[in-house]
Hints:
Elements: H1 2-24, H2 35-44, H3 48-57, H4 74-92
Amino acid sequence: xxxxxxxxxxxxxxxxxxxxxxxxxxxxxxxxxxxxxxxxxxxxxxxxxxxxxxxxxxxxxxxxxxxxxxxxxxxxxxxxxxxxxxxxxxxxx
Length: 93
């Protein structure tokens, strides 16, 4: 009996969590199917629908990088090389 109760609680929590997660996602970022279809699958297909959404439908969690590390930025490296060259020339004079 305890297993049944825990299973039902797990199913309800997983379904509510995933449905809210799917509903709050931007429609343009949801993968594979559109947002409305994912909501129907999550609600109508117990546990498997929620797991499928979390595995293949949810938006990717990695945000686009807004800054480039200095050693990956060609413009920064070009300016650094020019500055070092200018310093070497000023030492020679």
